[in-house]
Amino acid sequence: MLTLLTILLIYVVTIIAHELFHAWVAICFNMKIEKIYIGWPLPPNIAVIKRKNYEIVITPWILLGGGVLIEEDSYWKSAFWQKLLMLLYGPMANIILAMLIALMVLGESNGLLVSRETFQAFTEAIKLFLLGSVEASDVSGPVEIAAISQQIMNNDWLTGVLFITLILNIGVAVINLLPLPGLDGGQIVLAGICAMKKNSTNSIKLAKHLNIAFFYLYVLFIFYFVINEIAGLII
Q1: Letter string b/e over residues 196-209, b meaning 16 or more CB atoms within 10 A of that residue's CB
Q2: Any transmembrane segments, and where (predicted)?
């Protein structure tokens, strides 16, 4: 139970870092933020923290990610390069966290940050994740990653924390950079297309419809994927 709570806490920190970097850059470019979601923007809300110019909304759907709601006019009136940077800085936060973990582990060679035992255990954890007991054609999903992480944490808690932090941050960054609507990469593509169309009403409407449609497709896909993984472990 403690292991699962640790994994959940690391994931929440990963999502918060991602969304706060989006929000920080948006504020720097004078985009009007309405809400920062910790958890996907689906009801019900667990808590709403009111700030001076925006709200931080916490939902029970944290495993699905989060989001930053920006006023449409301020978003579309901003330059494409501003939207580009704002969208890139979310994954950038996760890449930075992953790099810090890698530096901590590599720092073992000087005996500064982690012990040799932790370094060796971390290396074995990565091997287990990449090679493990599954076929090369299999894909490690959240359930399998959680199971591997729990196994590692049972042997060495620090190694497990470093491992899951690295894997989660790399995963969140890579997935969000995919050029699909609703994800950061897809938002960049749509923003670029709209910019070429001079942000015409039709191009903006199309972008909005695609984002909404893919948003619900992702929800269905994630539930289907996780249920299949759980069924595979049981069977």
Answers
A1: eeeeeeebbebbee
A2: 6-29, 84-106, 157-178, 206-227
